[in-house]
Specification:
single chain, alpha+beta, Alpha-Beta Plaits, 2 helices, about 40% helix, about 30% strand, globular
Length: about 100
């Protein structure tokens, strides 16, 4: 299962979804692409972010987020929720805090 946690300090995505074997897992591919794109959009829109990347982990450290960054993160959360609705056995999310 992939776990996605979002707070004011970080976005943390970890675990393998288990939908299919590695290399054929569309759920993992969707979440990975979304997370990496979110990180890149945050960087190009002048947000102060860093990443930690390991096997089965992508963490975005939110050191300073501007208005465009908040919108990017809100859209990340919305898309994760949509994917989670379609594949509830493979994704669990935790969005407890308002990003600000």
């Amino acid at each position: 299962m992939t776990i996605i946690y979002v707070s004011n300090k970080k976005i943390k995505v970890y675990g393998h979804s288990g939908y299919a074997e590695i290399g054929k897992d569309i759920v993992c591919a969707a979440i990975s692409t979304l997370t990496e794109s979110t990180y890149r959009y945050l960087k190009v829109t002048k947000n102060n972010v860093e990443s930690i990347e390991e096997d089965g982990l992508f963490e975005i450290i939110l050191n300073g987020i501007n208005d465009s960054g908040r919108e990017i993160i809100k859209e990340f959360v919305n898309i994760v929720k949509e994917i989670e609705e379609q594949y509830p056995l493979y994704i669990r999310s935790d969005f407890n805090e308002e990003i600000g």
